[in-house]
């Protein structure tokens, strides 16, 4: 009788071993990384804010904002008066006027234009262009950061889903083992200790699976938060990631390092910030140079009088002029120029520091990346060996030559080998994503 049930558990274990890696979500629609990235770039709130700020920077890049265009004002006004007056002359005659109404109206169009201001306007316009370029790069940096975050969370979710699949078939094995040893015990061919040990293992696997499902739930929340206002685009219960962690062809260190120095977005922003400081210095120095300003205007005025010989008057005319000046002394200009030069120097130092930091990060992450690629080969071989050992353990257990505890050890070894392989695959992928982000190539995941 015991041999009969041993054969049954052997068939059950073999079935789970062969088919245990099949995803439980085969009938659900797979959500690809590309789809997640497209949704995130469209709906992520931080991404939308970055684009809006970029629009502001583009709107600010105008000649008018830099002071290169004239300023034209239209002015109109009206004033009225209601007066009562009385007077007494030396000949004792008296005159009086009660509630006399007087009014005046005027209108004019005035224009002024700084045709030369020590190149301040030209420098300001060039600086606005730099600020627009920085804003464009900031959006690019935000895109890269978002792609990095979404891709990392996506592959983390794949890893956790595969953990869950492994735990599920481990639990199936433990469940079947508990059922068989319980039947054997009832038939008098098994021990109570073996039943108790099988139950402990089953409960342990059940607990691990519950915790793993919570990990997946939390990972889905983080990923869908990155995707932004998705509403019904991806429902949680149907959110099934790809089943594989796919690596790009092996990256080359020298090429990565060269691209990181040339294409790294943060370094490009830091270089632009130096240009902004240079224009700050030019703008401040322009305050010490002469300026030339043109002025012109056209206007009319109307006045109605409530006394005197003139009843009303109307005037119209055009005026123009030029103003030339220079600031002879300003106690702040020298200080502002010195501070601007210090700021520029600090930004130059910050760029050099960032370059060293990028080089160090590329070197460090690439070393981890290469090690993980090597570990993948090792862990794949380890998994192959663990599968073979597990198959041997099943056969020996079927023949009654292996205790349940030893069977459990082989089962645990297989699960740990699978987990180690998933870990190094995920680590290699996150290293790859980080290297692509540092070298300005992370958009290739789109």
Q: What can you tell me about this protein's structure?
A:
The chain is of the alpha+beta class and about 450 residues long. It has one domain: Outer membrane efflux proteins (OEP), CATH 1.20.1600. Helix content is about 65%, strand content about 15%. β3 and β4 form a beta hairpin. The longest helix is centred in the middle third of the chain and has 67 residues, at about 120-185. The radius of gyration is 40 Å and the shape is elongated. It starts with a helix and ends in an 8-residue tail after the last helix. Residues about 1-5 and about 15-25 have low confidence and may be disordered.
Mean pLDDT: 85
User: CATH top level?
Assistant: Mainly Alpha
CATH fold-type name: Outer membrane efflux proteins (OEP)
Name the structural class.
alpha+beta
Q: Give the distance, in angstroms, between the N- and C-terminal Cα atoms.
A: 59 Å
Stretches with pLDDT under 50, minimum 5 residues: 1-6, 15-27
**How many distinct folded domains?**
1
Biggest β-sheet, characterized?
4 strands, antiparallel
Please name the defining characteristics of this protein:
single chain, 446 residues, alpha+beta, 4-stranded antiparallel β-sheet, elongated, disordered N terminus
In short:
The chain is α+β, with helices and mostly antiparallel strands and 446 residues long. It is built from 10 helices and 4 strands.
Summarize the SSE layout with pairings.
Blueprint: H1 2-19, H2 33-43, H3 45-60, H4 63-66, E1 71-88, E2 94-116, H5 120-186, H6 192-227, H7 253-263, H8 265-285, E3 291-304, E4 312-325, H9 333-398, H10 404-438
Antiparallel strand pairs: 1-2, 2-3, 3-4
